[in-house]
Amino acid sequence: MRSEKQKMLAGELYRADDPELLRDHAAIRAWMDRYNSASGLSGAERHALLRDGLGHVGAHVVVRPPFHCDYGYNIRLGDGVFLNFGCVLLDSILIDIGAGTQIGPAVQIYGADHPRDPAQRRAGLEFGQPVKIGANVWIGGGAIITPGVTVGDDAIIGAGAVVTRDVPAGLTVAGNPARRIGG
């Protein structure tokens, strides 16, 4: 029988109140407390702290606190990724952000999702859908990326956009729901 964590990582229905997942969540909350309150650290010290909490952190990554996530170990940040103040990544499943991507303040990226069936929600079941953001993407402040979305390389997401569908490489989208803008 598969553990709830194994189900979560596979994108299957799982129970988030499982003791193993509660321990993992408590551990990342303690890490976030350290990370978000650590002032006066050198760039190398802050980078080392990021590597302690997240699944993969490339070279020259900057994540400005406060930063919030569910587990940390499902987050992959490529070289040179920049996350501005107040970002939230709900990483019950993989959130992969490509090299050189710049993310504005208060951006929310959701891998976590909930069943549409009310009986499953009442039973406390959840699931996740991976989010993939390509290289050299620019995401404006306050944007929301919903579960299962892929954003192609060099795309631009306008400030405040709600991205509910995949965004092809090089495309600029804005609005709620996000739609193509410009040529």
Q: Quick one: biggest sheet? A: 7 strands, mixed
Distance N terminus to C terminus?
52 Å
Can you count the helices? Answer: 4
Instruction: Please identify, by name, the CATH architecture.
Output: 3 Solenoid
Low-confidence stretches: none
What is the CATH third-level topology name? Answer: UDP N-Acetylglucosamine Acyltransferase, domain 1
Which sequence of SSEs, written as H and E, runs from N to C?
Answer: HEHHEEEEEEEEEEHEEEEEEEEE
In CATH, what is the homologous superfamily? Answer: Hexapeptide repeat proteins
Description:
This protein is α/β, with parallel strands linked by helices and 183 residues long. It has one domain: Hexapeptide repeat proteins (UDP N-Acetylglucosamine Acyltransferase, domain 1, 3 Solenoid). It has 4 helices and 20 strands. The strands form 4 sheets. A 7-stranded mixed sheet has the order 3-6-9-14-17-19-20. A 5-stranded parallel sheet has the order 2-5-8-13-16, covered by helices on one side. A 5-stranded parallel sheet has the order 4-7-10-15-18. A hairpin with a 4-residue loop joins strand 19 (172-174) and strand 20 (179-180). It is globular. 34% of the residues are buried. The model has no long low-confidence stretch (mean pLDDT 96).
